[in-house]
Write a structure and sequence with these properties.
The protein is mostly beta strands and 118 residues long. Helix content is 0%, strand content 47%. The chain contains no helices and ten strands. The strands form two sheets. A six-stranded mixed β-sheet has the order 2-10-9-4-5-6, with no helix packed on it. It has a four-stranded antiparallel β-sheet with strand order 1-3-8-7, with no helix packed on it. It is globular.
Length: 118
């Protein structure tokens, strides 16, 4: 059974950091590019970051470039999103997704909520 399980979301104050983790199971994780996306209430899906299967050449969306960092550990079957300098506009449900941001996506996690507020 394929699973992508996100964790690490929660409440943060503006300027703080959070680290999201996504644990994969049920498929050959180390041959897939992986991505993070988010959806804020009333808004469409926004792609944040992608990383190739070997961890090379990460891509970032403009709104998170220089603040967020994607990484992965193929031994642990995990992908991470380090989020720094959070602001209220980062409030959203964050999803772990298989595949490059612009490619078809076989697997989706259920998401983890990030709320940035005082």
């Amino acid at each position: 059974q394929v699973q992508l399980v996100e964790s690490g979301g929660g409440l943060a104050q503006p300027g703080e950091s959070l680290r999201l983790s996504c644990t994969a199971s049920g498929f050959k994780f180390d041959v897939y590019a992986m991505s993070w996306a988010r959806q804020a209430p009333g808004k469409g899906l926004e792609w944040l970051a992608s990383i190739f299967s070997d961890g090379s050449d990460p891509w970032y969306g403009d709104s998170v470039k220089d603040r967020f960092t994607i990484s992965r550990n193929n031994v642990k079957n995990e992908v991470y999103l380090q989020m720094n300098m959070l602001n209220p506009e980062d409030t959203a449900q964050y999803f772990c997704v298989s595949g490059w941001h612009s490619s078809p996506h076989d697997y989706w996690g259920r998401g983890t909520q990030v709320t940035v507020s005082y």
